[in-house]
Amino acid sequence: MLIKRRPGWELPESQATPEHIAMNRRAFLGGSAGLIAGSTLPQIAAAQGADPTLDLYPAKRNASYTLDRPVTDEELAANYNNFYEFGMSKDVVSAAKKLPTRPWNIAIDGMVEKPFEIGFDDLVRKMPLEERLYRFRCVESWAMAVPWTGFPLKALVALAQPLSSAKYVKFETFLNPRVASGQTQRWYPWPYTEGLTMAEANNDLTLMVTGIYGKPLPNQHGAPVRLITPWKYGFKSVKSIARISFVAERPKTFWEALQSSEYGFWANVNPEVPHPRWSQASEQVLGSRERRPTLLFNGYGEQVAAMYKGLEGERLYV
Questions:
Q1: What is the domain partition of the chain in residue ranges?
Q2: DSSP 48-79
Q3: Ranges of the chain with pLDDT below 50
Q4: What is the pLDDT of residue 43?
Q5: Are 116 and 108 within 8 A, CB to CB?
Q6: What pLDDT is stored for residue 23 in this prediction?
């Protein structure tokens, strides 16, 4: 659904992404269309070991979501990732490649009319894919700007048909310590678990992400599907989702279970509330020496602030 009111942070698309980057990517893929018909590409890709959803990219960009800064260089974003299942460093590309992402089934259960399991490749073809430019803010105080491809989480909520008694959506990642060495560290509460309220899940900004930079997600970004809630700190954006449960009670999330004094359930970006061990007042933009002032709700307050009215007693921020 398009956001008709232009937010204060939104700028024209021409100021968000260098034109040559967008044109080169689309020209290459557009030129390939005459050689490989869209109807046969999934079968060819599967036969060659490529992603069977490759024909869905690049998706059309939704012009309502733009940025106040240049898009982060793809190579930089690809090599600076938190994915604790594969280690504590930012360089997890090689380790994450070990995770098999096909076949990949997602269980939909809990308070729904009828629990079911669906293959990712089937799910993604049922959903309205689009590209959106979002800011991404890590609780560690670094930031980047990313062209995500995905579909609104509310489209999946509608598919799941939750009962009225469902108040939260709980997300779980895979559990496979044979390939994810970090999951052999038993002091962590594996599998990685996250949660949103139903209102947050149905917000227009909340995106189930399947691609980045006009291509399917690579493993280090959370293939084949991850969550993005751009007004929250990045640890809320659970990767490699394997189960989505609709529940009545607030789920205890991974970082909340590990260290609740430092990482709460809500994790909304707020420059005025520091992490117990560092300030959140500014952020380091990847690929530059620039530090920018952190924006309340990461700049998306116009779209999300109303969800938190009446929750003044809650610890909404880290």
A1: 69-308
A2: TTS-TTGGG-SPPB-TT---SSPPPPHHHHHT
A3: 1-48
A4: 46
A5: yes
A6: 37
Give residue 22's pLDDT.
Answer: 39
Distances in Å between the Cα of 201 and the Cα atoms of 212, 228, 247 are 21, 10, 13
CB 162, CB 111: distance < 8 Å: yes
Q: Per residue in 33-57, pLDDT tens?
A: 443 344 444 444 444 468 999 999 9
Quick one: pLDDT at residue 49? 65
Give the DSSP letter of residue 224.
T
CB 202 within 8 A of CB 168: no
Quote the tokens at residue 138: 């890590």
Q: Which residues contact 316 (CB under 8 A, 6 or more apart)?
A: 264, 266, 268, 270, 308
| Exposure class string for 71-82: b at 16+ Cβ within 10 A, else e | bbebeebeebbb
CA distances from 231 to 95, 133, 308 (A): 29, 13, 12
Helix or strand run (H / E) with residue 130: strand 130-137
| Phi, psi dihedrals of residue 268, rounded to the nearest 5° | -75, 140
Q: State the pLDDT at residue 48.
A: 44
Specify the CATH number for 69-308; select among 3.30.70.120, 3.10.450.50, 3.40.190.10, 3.90.420.10. 3.90.420.10
Buried b (16+ CB within 10 A) or exposed e, 138-158: bbbbbbbbbbbbbbbbbebbe
Token readout for 41 is 């590409």
pTM for this prediction: 0.85
